[in-house]
Amino acid sequence: MLGKEIGVARYFNGFDWVGPIELNIEHKRLFPGSLGPNTAEMGTAMHYTEAHPLFDATLARLKPWLVEAGFRGNIDINCLTNDEGIWPLEATARFGYPATQLQMAFHLSPWTDFLSAIADGKSFDLEWRPGYGVVILIAAPPFPFGHSADRRGSGVRGIPVRFRRELESAELRHVHFEGVTFQNHSVPARYVICDDTGYVLHVTGHGPDPATAREKALALAKEIVIPGMFYRHDIGENADFTFEWGDVAPPEPIIVGSLTPPLQA
To answer: What is the CATH number of the domain that holds 163?
Structure first.
């Protein structure tokens, strides 16, 4: 079955929704153009909004169950949409990866205050930037096979992460290190890859439209120097958050097998 894959997420405090609705489009294939094997994720395009029919048709319906379960945290439903309706694919009741890194580009309120309110079951007036965001994974070999036992020891552990120029503090807030350590005992201090998985770091960009957000993330990625590094340059290139259910042209085409009956918006 063909369609458009899009996720909808929101934070819940055990009693009610907190903060805006998050729409996200994941890019799981290894190569640009949605080619190659699936990975955990090569990047995501995201949009925050106050209201959206996809939320009303899917995630909002879970509120009574979430209250009964006392759920507190972030929950996401990934869906396939086409002219037949909305087909929920999976529910993820945890922090998203790398969605959380990208949320940092939207949130203006302190995370400690926000998450404390979520944990305590309190309402919270989250301040956030409108617009769109893009997050891109910067990877290195043996990614995406770094979690295989026979690949251990063949990765990039010990290789420094360098920058073509000294980044400003505002730019560094859009760099999210993963398997990297900061060696401040070195002269000069440096960032060094400390595992063999190939998950090195993520870069994010935010803007008034997906194209601007993508350009900012790519500009930051080009400042990073790691031997053998690679990333997708088309994350968010065709991101469309304003579709109708009958619009079946997918930004990230997928093929799925047998599915449960769809939800109707």
So the answer is: 3.30.470.20
